[in-house]
Amino acid sequence: MIARNPKSLSALSAGKASYGARSILDQAEDYLECAKLYPCMYQPPKVIFEFMSGIEENLANKLKAIGIIVKGEILPNSVYIEDCDDSWSSESSDEESLCNQQSSLEQVSQCMEEHPKIDTLNLDVTAMMAYVSNMTNGHCNYVFIQEVLTQQCAWEAERPVKPVLERLFEGKSLVCCRTAWDDFEKIVNTLGGPMEKVRTEELKKMVEVFPDDYGGDDDYPRHNLKVRGHVRLRSKIIFNFGHRIKALTVSANEGFLRSSLQQGVTYAAFIHESRALTEGKESTAKKIEL
C-alpha cells in the first residue's frame, strides 16, 4: 500500500521529485518483471494497481500501455501535468491504435489463461500407477487386508479414475522424464501383477521418455525449491521437467504442490485421486459382489 494523492503520483511520474525517488511507473516495471518469473499455466499473472483515491487519466494510460490493469476512479488531468506532458496528452491516431491493440492483447492473454492450449502431458509416477492398476481396470470389488487399499476401492467404485485419465489423454502427447519412468517400472516389477505388467508395456508404447535435464535449465524459483517435507527430490525432478517443457503434469501428489506453494512456487498440474497397484494383493483379499 502506498499513501499518495493522485497529483503527487502524477508529479513523481513526471520526474518532479527528489533524487532517487521511484515513481509508480518504476514500481510497475518491477512488478511486471516479477510476474514473468512466476507464471501461472505458463502465462505471467496479471498485475493490478488499485487506486482508492483515484488516478489521473494520463498516468492511468501510461500504466495501461505497459501492461498494468488499473482499477479506481479515473480523474481529469491537473493543469500541471497537462502542461508538462503534452506529448502524452495529445494522442495521435497511431497512439490510439496502439492502446486498442494493447487492450486486444490483454483479452487474448486472459483467454489463454482461462483456456490454455497445452498439448503435452507430463506423467508422474502416481498417474502411471493409477492408469495400469487392476483397481482402476474393473477390479475394485475387493476388501483388502490393507485398509487404505479397501478405502481406495470404495472411492474407485464411486469415482473411477481411469475414464478421467483416458479423456485427459485424448489427442495429447504423453511424456515423462527418465526418473519417473524408471521408478514407476521398478514399482511395477516389484509389486505389480501379470495384467498390471501387461498394461505397463502398453503404456510404454504411448509415452515418450526424456532425460531428466531435457528442456534446459530450471528458472530461479524452481531451481531453488528446497527439498524438505513433502517436497522430495523425485517429485521436484518430475514437476520441474514438466515446467521446462511447458507441459501439464498429471499427478496425485497434491502434497508436493501444497508444499511448493508455501515456498512461493507453482506448477501447472492436473490432480487426480491416488490409486495403488492391487493385483498382487488380490489373492489375500476378500472379493465382494458389486
TrEMBL record:
Top-rank taxon: Eukaryota
Limits of the DUF1308 domain: 121-286
Domain DUF5614: 2-101
Pfam families: DUF1308, DUF5614
Matching InterPro entries: DUF1308, DUF5614
First and last residue of the signal peptide: none
Family according to the record: Belongs to the UPF0415 family.
The protein's name: DUF1308 domain-containing protein
Organism: Manduca sexta (Tobacco hawkmoth)
